[in-house]
Amino acid sequence: MSAKSRLLKYIRAIGALASISAVVVVITDGAVEAQSVATSQPAAVPADDPARGLVYAGLERDTSGRCGNLLRVRGTDKCTHGPDAPPPGFSMGKHVQAEASSLAAASVDCIGDGSSGLRVQMMYVHPPGTNRYAEYLSSFQQWTSDMATIYSASAAQTGGTRKVRVVHNSACAPVILNVEISASALSSFGGTINALKALGYTRTDRKYAIFGDSTVYCGIGEFQGDDRKIASNRSNFGPSFGRTDRSCWGGHTVAHELGHNLGAVNNNAPNASGGAHCTDEYDVMCYSDSPNYPPMRIICTDRANENRMDCGKNDYFHTSPPANSYLATHYNVADNPFLDGSGTTPPPPTGTGPIVGLAGKCVDIQGASSADMTPLVIYTCHGGANQSWTVSSDGTLRSLGKCMDVRGGSTTAGTVVQLNTCNTGGAQKWVHRTDKTLQNPQSGKCLDVEGASSADGARLLIWTCHTGANQKWTLPV
Predict the structure, then answer these.
(1) According to CATH, what is the number of the domain 352-471?
(2) What DSSP assignment string belongs to 342-378?
(3) Domain-by-domain residue ranges, the chain?
(4) Which of 458, 423, 464, 400 is nearest to 138 (CA)?
(5) Distant-in-sequence, close-in-space partners of 232: CB < 8 Å, separation ≥ 6
(6) pLDDT tens digits for 374-392?
(7) How confident is the model over 207-264, as pLDDT tens digits?
């Protein structure tokens, strides 16, 4: 081999190994010269920003195309968008406190026997020497219920039904596993995944949603970046993992990380951010993220939509997308089989009579007044017109010619339930569920007797759904 040939071979080898430039061979008058020219490269993994929970240890930029040019857990085929910054109202320096204990465990939609088939398994994962399971169990169940409500209420916005297939017990309370792994495993997402898999959490019919007793992240989850509208889309299978750490415990971040596990948001969506999020606020999956930090646009102006999926219902979630739209031709999280769309809640009865609840008392229009904004209470049943309700096929409950209504259309727990002129709005829609709760889909909350008081005149409110006696109602048939 000539010297010139050996030099060419050497230069080509350098070029094949180079990741920041390409080597070009120039031959002029028999002389061989190597020149370096810049080439386009994938964006580097961002620098750590622990104060915002943005820690990239164990992550690398994927160049295979499998992860949609996002990140990969080093040494695995696990794709991720990377760590998420805290949402409004949360910060890495502040730990979320346990919520006040309720009368009963918060519930989720009962689906089958609670464990068969594809399921989202909730788990509390902690290091040795730290175990807050007993202190936080009711809060974990409540936040799981809040997460599930985000999905079901978002589906209702599109006229459909979607329920997260959470592992639950016979009382429909979410099952929260108590799992210990090493502190070093908790220090990175990859370490957590490997430790949990070593403990046997490898089921292909499970997505594992983690409450991590750590302060490394706000949240982080697997994201496949697979936009194919086919049954074999990688988002349709487990095992996959999403983790929410202690500074961000709550329904919002759990719903966000599960959203990534379920396939949101692909980077070719109409309002994609480029980092598996979206730019049209308010929306549970939208914020200005790495690598592009795009400007945000306020399209859905109601801040309550911060706890709803897909502001415009055109990027990643719609139960019945319009023909030829993006979601009609690309992956749609609402089609993920870990969500139940069967609409198994029985249709409402259409009878007229009393609505009977706590201690056998009746839903009563206070003072028998038909004026708008008259509060509803419970009262000893007496058969009067102000205790006679017609269950309409449009989902409203009617008495004295008006409708049961959530005051101001609020979605806030503790909002008064009242009588108001019927207007077919979401504040006047009610669903009688299989566990006998009466849910307002717009808020995702249930009709509740304040303080579980059985006294005559106790007010009716909306409150986070649970299985307590003060939320169970028998409707007329």
Answers:
(1) 2.80.10.50
(2) S--SPPPP--EE--B-GGG-EEEEGGG--STTEEEEE
(3) 3-38, 50-340, 352-471
(4) 464
(5) none
(6) 999 999 999 999 999 998 8
(7) 999 999 999 999 999 999 999 999 999 999 999 999 999 999 999 999 999 999 999 9
